Amino acid sequence: MPLALIVHGGAWDIPDDEVAEHQQGCRAALRAGWAVLERGGSALDAVEVAVRALEDAPIFDAGVGSVLNRDGDVELDAAVMQGDTLRSGAVAAVRRVRNPITLARRVLESQVILLVAQGAERFAESAGVPLCDPAELIVERERRRWEDLRTQADFRTQDAFGAAREAKQPAKQGDDAPAPRPSGPPLEHPGDTVGCVALDSAGRLAAGTSTGGTANKLPGRVGDSPLIGAGLYADNATGGCSTTGWGESIMKVLLAKTATDLIGAGYDPMAAARAAIDVLGRRVGGLGGCILLDPRGRVGFAFNTPRMAYAYRAEGADEVVGI
Q1: What CA–CA distance (Å, rounded) separates 180 from 224?
Q2: 11: helix, coil or strand?
Q3: Strand, coil or helix: what is 202?
Q4: Dihedral angle computed from the Cα positions of residues 145, 222, 163 and 148, in that order, rounded to the nearest 10 degrees
Q5: Is 258 considered catalytic here?
Q6: What is the pLDDT of residue 1?
Q7: Of residues 193, 209, 243, 260, which has the active-site annotation?
Q8: Are 199 and 295 in contact (CB under 8 A)?
Q9: pTM of the prediction?
């Protein structure tokens, strides 16, 4: 079975001066995960290693460098899923774990699927996952962005995404009804959720997603990233997917499951990714992106934001890094 691995570093309006660092981070994560596959490691191992590399890169909204919520704290979500067994593990709203993807892996190995907040951190201690000082996760770039948001004139009227919304009339029903207008967070705010999908030599798929959420979010807000079917999905019978973008819209259309089901319906991965993102935009006015692998190791990705950082490699081909 051919090896394949793809990573993403978020879909949003990535500034020009951050492009190179996003590409470098994705390339490093790709190579870290690929080394695991080349040594005969499992897809799940490769996903964990690749996502840890992204969490450790301060440029991304995952692990160190994550955005701050309204209280000025970092809250992290992550999940992993195996395509052969459909087992999964997820954590949400954790504040004292540097690599939540590893904690999600430990949850996968337990008898539960999703743990949150203090319960997840207590489990981390029992599972041997080290805790950290929450201040270690905050970088000066995100502290400044949080302070800028607090001084904006519309601060008091911002919703859970930190974005002022205008009241909109429901769209007319029917084939000629206009597509919903994107109503998510402003694209200038970071949305660097990270993720990985891998295929190993035994033909097993795995997917993982990790995030710090959205800038200036309500404390306790959980997006799509740790939710199976929304932020990620892996099934050896169809494909593996990790998503990124406006979480509330991604959850409404179960973007990851939608994308992998399209592969199962006969779409090649690139066409499936594009069709899934079309559903995201057309049905709920959502903004985001996704990465895909099918059981043959074919790659797919798509996004409807100005940029999405990504990198991938399939056995017998050179690595590709894009944005």
Answers
A1: 20
A2: strand
A3: coil
A4: -10
A5: no
A6: 76
A7: 193
A8: yes
A9: 0.90
